[in-house]
Design brief:
179 residues; alpha/beta; Rossmann fold; six-stranded mixed β-sheet; four-stranded antiparallel β-sheet; 3 helices; binds inosinic acid; binds magnesium ion
Length: 179
Amino acid sequence: MKDIVVVKDKVFETYILETELENIVSNVAQKISNDLRNENPLFLATLNGSFIFASDLIRKIDFDAEISFIKLASYSGTESTGNVKQLIGLNENIENRIVVVIEDIIDTGISMEAMIEELQKHSPKKIVLCTLLFKPGKFVKDYAIDYIGKSIDDDFIVGYGLDYEGFGRNLSKIYKIKE
Ligand code: IMP
Ligand code: MG
């Protein structure tokens, strides 16, 4: 019997339980710890969605690590420039440093591509991508994603930081929309 929750006007059912989430996060953290132990990476968690994943992940990284929080804010530019993205929160110098971008979910991949483009302007040594969830059926880009917690189907989900219209982030499990 699946748990049911209502978030705003939609009904969701349990999809990924806490125990599985913990295993997923442990596996990713172990891989990153092994791969980047001697690289002094800067972890960059993308707000808002990745705040819970990032807080669990960083506590499972077993070397002395630095984390910061960034956000891509959209604002309307002139008609010719259209929708302009601005990177906010990057206070560290990442020039010639490996950065690990922590994302909650990569769906079409468009948001992450915009993030990569903005970070490239700051000349990092390398941009490593880490996402809790990935929807391969929706992905329209071709960049490599270094660490994927779990690939899922195309359904809309909430919980563990992910929202539906701002709500549902505080749910401990991940829920998927019930048709
Ligand atoms: P993109 O399509 O990869 O650009 O994803 C953009 C953003 O949409 C993600 O960072 C999430 O914040 C959000 N998103 C994508 N799929 C879901 C979902 O199933 N639930 C909640 N948010 C989602
Ligand atoms: Mg997001």
